[in-house]
Specification:
The protein has 10 helices and 39 strands. The protein has 3 domains: 75 residues, no CATH class; 200 residues, no CATH class; 224 residues, no CATH class. It is of the alpha+beta class. 40% of the residues are buried.
């Protein structure tokens, strides 16, 4: 068969071309525009030519390497710039994300969405407009760098508590708190705010060879005795900032904090960087935790494991007047309620809990003579106690009824809301729970082969949820949590798909019902080797508007909410499966090549019970996230 060479281009990636000569520039352009074929590159003449060209270019450029770009769509006659493609493209952070539709006016209430929250003598506001201070253009997530900002403008009487930082690979979408004390800034009064006594330089970019806008300097405020710093300040000058620019917080209004998601470092991965910049969050998070997220960042130099020098804020009185009332909760659901799109091949759909009970679900008791039917609201279910295995639910006994209930009933399906304060009650979490009567079998992907896993993954009863995190300052949607097989992931609103205004779009995985933000395949396992459990998502014809039918089943801060009896059922919503997992694994891998078998067996054995399906799940109130943060 005749070999037909494909056209390729040589791309020279120059990591430091700040001070090269014009002659070298011309050579660089000619070199990039050199067209070659596979025949030429593989020939001895071609190899010698490449080696000689490398030596010539090395006299002008200190650090370069050649990358053959397959399928590079560049015309031989098009101009080639010596700037890297990263410098030429518009970085995502140069655009500001806003929700697709304006935030609606909220129904009247006490303190929700008034723009300001009192933390017990410290009034704070959320600022989401910024002035750029300094930026890098490489390293960090996606090797695109990060940008550092100051809040601007700051309302009269309020003071900056720290600077904001965000990676460049996302549109600008963030905030930071500013504070106002009850002493009007009078330094003679031991109020909640005080100026720092000095600054210490934590890190400077002067000695780091990265693409950057000038030099950046990160300073730590040194607080007076009895006060804490809750943020760093960033400058583009080596001169110390003015002491008037920031304020420290009285210690009784602070709480311990910890690092959150990685924002930037001097390398592409954080474990190789001289400095790493992380988001910050309260160390203790939950419905009764007082820590308040400031929105500032944490800078960690040389991987220091020393105790963090920053604190977060604290809602000292833990007042809940800023939480939404009933009419405001309804308005939030009308504004933000998600859509669920099911895979085109999905057989096991959601239903309401009452439909499940009314259509033959049974309550079993260990040692009991026969199962009992369940009334529509679950009032005959055992209440409270621990999950001791003495009770469980199951499908109808008759085969026809069992198969019918497995498939669920989308028309009857409804969502169950748990509304709770989070991050010191400056945010509201609306956890939206969905019930499926049955979780279907799992499938694995082994390189290019799909493997059915038999009964692995099947179980009766499946609870999944989406959580909306909403700012109590203005009612804006900030983040969305998507549950995924007992774990899950927080997504910023700027990373999500919307439809019909500000309604989030989610995709439920085939059979397993985990939530994802995009259609396609998500592999749970070793992605590099292409071995893992398949989570296939697609935009099928069937969908569910989570705002169409919902019931507020719990909001502990509102005394008027009556919880349904089934919510306090603490045992499992399905029986323990009688199959032997080892036998099912052997069946699944019997046709695989010898080297792949142990890898797949090891993968399956490490799966959580929610995926293996060896026993039914517990209800929403038994999940750790009911009282704690999601992750």
């Amino acid at each position: 068969m005749e070999y037909r060479p494909k056209i390729r281009w040589i791309w020279l990636k120059e990591t430091n071309i700040r001070h090269h000569q014009p002659a070298a520039q011309g050579m660089l352009v000619s070199w990039i525009r050199l067209k070659y074929t596979q025949h030429f590159i593989r020939s001895s003449t071609g190899k010698a030519f490449l080696q000689q060209s490398k030596k010539t270019l090395h006299t002008h450029f200190r650090n370069f390497h050649l990358i053959p770009l397959k399928g590079l769509a560049t015309s031989p006659l098009s101009p080639i710039s010596t700037s890297t493609s990263k410098e030429m493209e518009v970085l995502p952070i140069r655009t500001t994300f806003t929700l697709p539709a304006p935030i609606p006016p909220w129904p009247s209430g006490e303190g929700f969405a008034t723009g300001s929250i009192d933390l017990g003598g410290l009034e704070v506001r959320q600022i989401s407009t910024f002035t750029k201070v300094w930026a890098t253009h490489e390293a960090g997530p996606d090797n695109l760098g990060a940008t550092f900002f100051r809040p601007s403008p700051i309302p009269a009487g309020f003071f900056m508590l720290g600077c904001y930082c965000q990676p460049n690979n996302k549109p600008l979408f963030g905030w930071i708190l500013v504070g106002k004390g009850d002493d009007n800034g009078d330094e003679a009064v031991a109020g909640v705010l005080r100026k720092p006594v000095d600054y210490t330089l934590v890190w400077s970019s002067e000695t780091v060879r990265i693409k950057q806008d000038g030099y950046g300097y990160i300073w730590l405020p040194l607080p007076p005795q009895g006060y804490e710093a809750v943020g760093f300040i960033v400058t583009n000058s080596s001169e110390k900032p003015s002491l008037d620019e920031m304020r420290c917080i009285r210690s009784d209004l602070t709480d311990p904090c910890e690092k959150d998601m990685w924002i930037w470092g001097t390398r592409k991965v954080n474990n190789e960087s001289v400095i790493n910049v992380y988001g910050s969050r309260p160390k203790h998070r939950g419905t009764r935790a007082f820590g308040v997220c400031v929105g500032a960042f944490i800078a960690q130099v040389d991987g220091s494991a020393s105790p963090l020098t920053l604190a977060c804020l604290k809602n000292k009185d833990f007042g809940l007047s800023c939480m939404p009332n009933l009419s405001q909760i309804d308005a939030l659901m009308q504004a933000y309620s998600p859509w669920i799109y099911f895979h085109p091949n999905e057989r096991y759909l959601p239903s309401s809990v009452s439909w499940f009970f009314n259509n033959g679900a049974l309550l079993y008791e260990q040692g009991g003579s026969k199962p009992s039917p369940i009334d529509p609201i679950g009032s005959n279910l055992p209440q409270g106690g621990s999950n001791d295995g003495s009770f469980w639910l199951d499908l109808p006994v008759d085969k026809g009824g069992k198969e019918r209930v497995k498939r669920g009933d989308l028309e009857s399906s409804e969502c169950y809301l748990h509304v709770k304060p989070m991050l010191g009650a400056v945010f509201t979490d609306i956890a939206i729970w969905v019930f499926y009567p049955f979780n279907g079998p799992a499938r694995a992907k082994v390189t290019f082969v799909d493997v059915k896993l038999g009964k692995i993954g099947q179980h009766v009863g499946d609870w999944e949820h989406v959580t909306l995190r909403i700012s109590n300052f203005n009612g804006e949607l900030w983040r969305v949590f998507l549950s995924q097989h007992g774990i899950g992931r927080w997504m910023y609103a700027s990373e999500l798909e919307f439809q019909g205004g500000n309604h989030v779009v989610t995709y439920a995985s085939l059979h397993g019902h985990s939530f994802y933000a995009k259609p396609g395949l998500v592999l749970q396992g070793n992605r590099k080797l292409g071995i893992g459990i398949r989570n296939d998502c697609g935009r099928g014809k069937l969908s569910m508007d989570m705002g169409m039918r919902y019931i507020l089943v719990a909001a502990e801060y509102l005394s008027s909410i009556i919880e349904p009896p089934w919510l306090d059922y603490t045992r499992e919503w399905g029986p323990k499966i009688s199959y032997k997992a080892a036998s099912e694994i052997c069946k699944a891998v019997r046709f695989l090549p010898g080297k792949l078998k142990p890898m797949v067996v090891d993968l399956i054995n490490k799966l959580p019970k929610e995926v293996l399906g060896e026993e039914g799940p517990t209800g929403p109130k038994m999940k750790r996230s009911w009282n704690d943060d999601e992750v």
